[in-house]
Amino acid sequence: MLHKISIPTPFPVGPVNVYLLKGKDCLTLVDTGPKTVEAQEALEAGLRAVGVRVEDLDQILLTHYHCDHVGLLENLVEQSGAKVYAHPFTEPLIAREPAFEAARSEFYQGLYRGLGLTEAQKQQAIGQIYDYLEYVGVAHVDVALREGDRLPGHEEWQVVYTPGHALDHLSLYDAVGKRMLLGDHVIKKISSNAFIEPPHRAGDERPRMLMIYREALRKVQTLDWEIGYAGHGEEITGHRDLITKRLADMERRQANVLETVRSGKTTGVEITLAMFPRHLEQLTLIISETVGHLDWLVAEGKLRVEDDNGLWRYFAVEE
């Protein structure tokens, strides 16, 4: 049995949906909400409505490490002793390992420098990233889940690795019930941002998140399901048409980015501000969106990138 609980967040995206799975001998919470008093109270009330306390939880599954999905984990584990399941990439993030945190900070400094952000813009963007950490406790993953695994205690649910919105993103698929638990992989009324992330292993190439996301969308599009439970908003039906629309929207935005470069904008920040002049308060999001399309255009040979003393400049490759 599946129960949806809506949790308030202080973010523009609005409430986040968490889900309680009631198995024969197992209670699993999928995601937690942010670390706020209001979120904790809403979660406890939602659990009470179906006859459950936080202390009764056996397991917590994290779809991905974003503060609105993992923030209360530390509190909930302390209260319940629940075992935590997540992708292998989640552990260093949720544990806040100092070396990992330092490497992430260095990555974003280098990224924003290469894109041409001013010092003030860099501080704004990095500040936005670290402001979110105020809403996340420190915890650990007990069991790493990978593609094809079954969720213990709920064997009908199979793990599907769906990276792109986050590199550690997991979804769950019930082939018999024709259902999916989607996290933020697919949302009905808004498109998920493919956040730029550093590689999880030192020396690896930066992951091209939008390209990764597109492939994961196509994978989920091929699966046979009738209802999807998303991390935000309403349930999803007709997923093949919705994903086709999302992919077409990406194609249109890619064309707009290419035209912006052809108009004479050559640095990442110039292209970003030209594309999203009304969303400067969400600098990290609009940078991720732009860089995702620049990566895609470079990979397709439509753009080339040149290093101008540490500043990356993008130029159209004319046919």
Automatic annotation (TrEMBL):
Superkingdom: Bacteria
Positions of the Metallo-beta-lactamase domain: 15-232
One Gene Ontology term of the molecular function aspect: hydrolase activity
Keyword list, A-Z: Hydrolase
Pfam families in the cross-refs: Lactamase_B
InterPro entries xref list: Metallo-B-lactamas (IPR001279), RibonucZ/Hydroxyglut_hydro (IPR036866), Sec-metab_biosynth-thioest (IPR050662), WH-like_DNA-bd_sf (IPR036388)
Protein's name according to its UniProt entry: Glyoxylase-like metal-dependent hydrolase (Beta-lactamase superfamily II)
